[in-house]
Amino acid sequence: MKNILFTLLFTGFCCPAPKIFAKTMHTSQASSSGTIIKNGKTIQTWIIINCPAAKVWQVLSDFEAYPDWNPFIREISGNSQHGDHLRVTLRPPESKGMTFKPRILCCDPEKELRWIGKLMLPYVFDGEHVFTLTDNSDGTCTFTQSEHFRGLLVPFLKNMLDNNTRKGFILMNEALKRRCEAMVADYSI
Predict the structure, then answer these.
(1) In the 3-class helix/strand/coil scheme, how is the chain assigned residue by residue?
(2) Which of 45, 92, 106, 109 is the most exposed place for a label (fewest CB within 10 A)?
(3) Residue 2: its pLDDT value, please?
(4) What pLDDT is recorded for position 10?
(5) Which residues contact 26 (CB under 8 A, 6 or more apart)?
(6) How far apart are CA 88 and CA 41, in angstroms?
(7) Lowest-pLDDT range, 17-21, 135-139, 165-169?
(8) At the topology level of CATH, where does 24-188 sit?
(9) Nearest residue to 49 via CA among 135, 170, 129, 145
(10) Across residues 71-100, what is the average pLDDT?
(11) Distance between CA atoms of 11 and 4, rounded to whole angstroms?
């Protein structure tokens, strides 16, 4: 029962983003913010990519190619269907890598991919990671990457999250922008 209630509360009955992520998107090229909220911490970064959301989704959902371009999420394997588990290897800057098996909470093509991962037991160190694509109606889209961390270890890992994890998000955002925009440039020649 607890798992069902948790799923309903945190998945918004499938894909609407949690209220903690309902922030106005800024138009700067590589921006980020971090907020400590009761019982957790949220990191959010965003970037405008000069191509349609469909192209960005194509790159974002091609897990096999992550080692070729992604400096933060080095590997992903598995299916991105609601309820499935992925195998994800992260390598934040200036940190040791880690592999974990998050569960997909939402996969809405060209709009959102969201998963939740945990360290050992629930509420020790849980992270709900969200990739969101927003069509800007001008041939560009805003890519937002955010994660809400909660659990007993969050206060002790705050500096690592503020530094290494945030840098990893920004590096990934910039690499995604370069890869997507290069693909569009290659197709227009």
Answers:
(1) CHHHHHHHHHHCCCCCCCHHHCCCCCCCCCEEEEEEECCEEEEEEEEEECCCHHHHHHHHCCHHHHHHHCCCEEEEECCCCCCCECEEEECCCCCCCEEECCEEEEEECCCEEEEEEECCCCCCCEEEEEEEEEECCCCCEEEEEEEEEECCCHHHCHHHHHHHHHHHHHHHHHHHHHHHHHHHHHHHC
(2) 109
(3) 41
(4) 37
(5) 46
(6) 21
(7) 17-21
(8) Alpha-D-Glucose-1,6-Bisphosphate; Chain A, domain 4 (3.30.530)
(9) 135
(10) 94
(11) 10
* Band of residue 20 on the pLDDT scale cut at 50, 70, 90: very low
Query: What is the model's pTM?
Result: 0.79
Q: Which two tokens stand for residue 40?
A: 């957790």
Q: What is the pLDDT of residue 32?
A: 52
Residues in the chain: 189
Burial code of 29-50, b = ≥16 C-beta within 10 A, e = fewer? eebbeeeeeeebbbbbbbbbbe
Delimit the domains of the chain by residue range: 24-188
What are the tokens at 188? 């227009």
Q: Is the pLDDT of residue 70 over 60?
A: yes
Residue 143 confidence (pLDDT) above 90: yes
Side chain identity, residue 68: D
- Report angle CA 173, 148, 17 to the nearest 5 degrees: 80
Question: Starting at the edge strand that comes first in sequence, how are the strands of the sheet with 98-100 ordered?
Answer: 73-77, 87-90, 98-100
Instruction: For residue 150, give the amino acid letter.
Output: R
